[in-house]
Amino acid sequence: MSTANTLRIGTRASALALWQARHVAALIGARPGAPHVELVEIATTGDALSEVPLWQTGGRAFFTREIDRAVITGRVDLAVHSLKDMATQLEPGIALAATLARGDPRDALVSAGGARLAMLPRGARIGTSSLRRRAFLARLRPDATLLDLRGNVPTRIERLERGDYDAIVLAAAGLERLGLARHVSEYLEPEQFPPAVSQGVIGVCARSDDAATLALLATHDDPAARLAASAERALLRRLEGGCQVPLGALARLAGGTLTLAAGVCALDGSRLLSAHGSASGAGGRAPLLAEAQALGERIADELLARGAGALMARERDARAVAEP
User: Fold this and answer.
1) Would 246 be classed as within a structural domain?
2) Residue 176: CATH number of its domain
3) Which of 41, 167, 274, 292 lies at a CB distance of 3.0 to 4.6 Å from 263, suitable for a disulfide?
4) Same domain, 212 and 297
């Protein structure tokens, strides 16, 4: 922890990132004897290339790398991220100190006239920068015209309202956190439209050798979110995916049982590979972290056995040819 009794939080400057950082600052500030908290805005590669479709960027940690490196070098003491943006292999010297209680993990459709996905006109222009969303949109609405969409959440809604799109797809949690849930036309249910790995979870990172900060943040770790995210991230790690892979997954803890469902979809929606399973702890307890990770790896292996590896490789090769 900072020796000057000031805890510096690294964050992106977008409206949603700042909301998340301020939320973490408020949680820390509510504790007796809490340090003073200062937000430090840091530009990331994702911010610099704001007009480039995400699937063309390559690599991972597109929105987190620069902030995590600021933690490692001591410029800031902790980083606040949307956990779905984080690579499944953290940089050496970084620890995922807290996973906050999960918000709504679903995707949400925002349409110009409030129409649900099934009721959009034929050929409707739907905006998204996510390959996963494009794939599942193509499966549910093969007639739709899918267009790239970048920018922060308010900017995306503004572009919809000025007529650039007939509808857009955004994370429900982000809309709710920014007070924009009134714009939602339909929440897309995970059974047909599985969300991104860890969607709705805020992840807080610190230096792995900063015992004081790690201990402070551990008090805000949500066990259910940690288990679900661990299973989903283990699945993603085994599949060697990222934001450029049309993979959706959702784990849920109910009682002492953790369930995980996942799907890999061809970008044109023509083929969907799905798998699901569960893990329970002994004596009715919740699974241990290792058991949650083992569940994710098991579901990944099922998907690979059904041809997920070949499907993802074909999609990557097709995009490599199509990229300018």
Assistant:
1) yes
2) 3.40.190.10
3) 274
4) no
Judge whether residue 324 has pLDDT over 50: no
* Interval 39-64: pLDDT, tens: 999 998 765 555 555 545 555 666 89
The pTM (predicted TM-score) of the whole model is: 0.91
Q: Inform me whether the pLDDT recorded for 241 exceeds 90.
A: no
**Into how many domains does the chain fold?**
3
The whole-chain average pLDDT of the chain stands at 91
Continuous H helices in 87-241: 131-140, 153-161, 172-177, 211-218, 223-239
Percent of the chain whose predicted confidence (pLDDT) is above 70: 90
* 193 found inside a domain: no
User: What's the order of all strands across the beta sheet hosting 6-11?
Assistant: 36-41, 6-11, 78-82, 202-207, 94-99
Query: DSSP alpha helices (H): ranges in 53-195?
Result: 65-73, 131-140, 153-161, 172-177
Q: Which residue has the tokens 């994370």?
A: 171
Query: Which residues form the catalytic set?
Result: 85
d(CA 182, CA 175): 9
As a whole number of angstroms, the distance between CA 172 and CA 103 comes to 8
